[in-house]
Amino acid sequence: MILIADGGSTKTTWCVVEAHTSRSFFHTEGYNPEFIDTLGIIASLQQNLPTTLATAAITEVHYYGASVVSALQVATVVNAMQAVFTQARVFVGHDLLAAARALLGQEPGFAAILGTGTNSCVYDGARITHNVDSLGYFLGDEGSGAFLGKALLRDYLRGQMPARLEGEFRTTYNMEREAIMDRLYNHPFPNRFVASFAKFAYDHSSATYCQQLVAEAFDLFFRNIITQYPAYQAYTFNCVGSVGYSFRDALTQVATAHGMAVGKIIRAPIDDLVSYHLAAVS
């Protein structure tokens, strides 16, 4: 059996492939090594893997995850996977490579992620050849769920949100400044916490305020990141992620305004990623 995983900062989607045909899916929490260590991943997997999954029967694990970049981050995840799937050959790669493989297969092109965080690359059909650093949750990630969530929280706490939306925001989340700050600075996974508020913009997407907030975030994503790629307009913009998919109309408008044609926009890469791996072994 082969196990393929798309690991975001918030959620990991897994697919078990048997006999190269049968597919079954399940979910666990996300395992971003910036926020969790090897023992934490092991504990979570032991608690959240389906009880019917025969871990000793897994022969290969292909795990793609957020922030799996440095040798130390790769080792954090590899060690966890090897501890749980003891008979498996383990490959751990960046979620950006998963996005490129899902969106482009073995064809060259441009791929991006717009989910809890954001990332992008030029891909030559086998590997990533150019990446403009999104700078992550603290310094960048323009256009991401975390970026949208931070903007909403700032406007809410500063009283700069339109009155009607401010009231709905307060009713929806029932959180005042002290509780918000406590979650941000005294609890794990602050990136997940702020990204969770992006749903408010989607739920109120007919409001001019939310439309402008999303459009401005995507415009910053293009101006600060995408336009930094040489000859970026020669590529088709392809994107994976819940934020890009949920706001795909606004994303398409911004991409077009920056002179970039839009290709494939999907919510999650797992189905296309599994197909990529099955094609590679067929």
Automatic annotation (TrEMBL):
It comes from the Bacteria. The keyword Transferase applies. GO terms for molecular function: kinase activity. Keywords: Kinase, Plasmid, Transferase. InterPro entries: ATPase_NBD, Euk-type_GlcNAc_Kinase. The keyword NADP does not apply. This is N-acetylglucosamine kinase. It comes from Hymenobacter tibetensis. The lineage of its organism: Bacteria, Pseudomonadati, Bacteroidota, Cytophagia, Cytophagales.
